[in-house]
């Protein structure tokens, strides 16, 4: 991912100027610089043969696949251990295109509404005897980027 960001990032940033948040730009920059001389490093020395190796520092950004792969696997295993032996459904709620720009400039308000509305909708429909007739539990996750790394708020 770092190579892709380093190679295509400048053009992508330019073509999406005004639609990428400062936080997203910081993540891209951290990933681009991760384990490079830009973040400094240290020299490792083998005690047996005296071989020297430069080891560059990591960015430690929670979105970096190099830095957080182990933590992500551990988080996923922890979540899977919490699952009950019942069927699960993956439901996605997304914002209509015209509201995406509004969401970008009013993130706290719009994202809060998106998550609350999604939860209320699922709870209401599930409680209806014509559907499930049950009280459900849910886990909601907010995603603000789509797979094409463009602004695409959905939960």
Features:
155 residues; mainly alpha; 2 domains; two-stranded antiparallel sheet; 5 helices; 11% strand; flat
- Number of strand segments: 4
Helix fraction, binned, reads 40-55%
Number of helices: 5
Biggest sheet descriptor: 2 strands, antiparallel
Strand order of the largest sheet: 1-2
User: Would you tell me the overall average pLDDT?
Assistant: 88
Radius of gyration: 21 Å
Indicate how many domains the architecture comprises. Answer: 2
What fraction strand? 5-15%
Unreliable stretches (pLDDT < 50, length at least 5) are: none
Which oligomeric state applies? single chain
Any idea what the shape is?
flat
Distance between the termini: 24 Å
Structural class: mainly alpha
- Secondary-structure element order, N to C: HHEEHHHEE
Structural commentary:
The structure is a single chain. It is flat, with a radius of gyration of 21 Å. The longest helix has 21 residues, at 107-127. A hairpin with a 6-residue loop joins strand 1 and strand 2. The chain starts with a helix and ends with a strand. The chain has 155 residues and is mostly helical. Helices cover 48% and strands 11% of the residues. The strands form 2 sheets. A two-stranded antiparallel sheet has the order 1-2. A two-stranded antiparallel ribbon has the order 3-4. It has 2 domains: 1-75, no CATH class; 84-155, no CATH class.
């Amino acid at each position: 991912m770092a190579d892709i960001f380093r190679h295509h990032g400048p053009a992508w940033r330019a073509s999406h100027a005004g639609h990428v948040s400062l936080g997203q730009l910081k993540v891209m920059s951290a990933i681009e610089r991760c384990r490079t001389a830009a973040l400094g490093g240290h020299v490792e020395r083998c005690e047996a043969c005296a071989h020297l190796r430069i080891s560059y520092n990591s960015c430690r950004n929670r979105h970096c696949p190099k830095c957080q792969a182990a933590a992500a696997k551990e988080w996923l295993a922890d979540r899977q251990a919490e699952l009950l032996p019942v069927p699960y459904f993956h439901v996605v709620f997304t914002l209509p295109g015209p509201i995406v720009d509004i969401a970008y400039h009013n993130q706290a308000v719009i994202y809060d509404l998106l998550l609350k509305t999604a939860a209320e909708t699922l709870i209401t429909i599930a409680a209806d005897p014509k559907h499930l007739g049950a009280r459900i539990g849910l886990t909601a996750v907010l995603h603000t980027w789509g797979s094409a790394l463009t602004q695409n708020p959905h939960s």
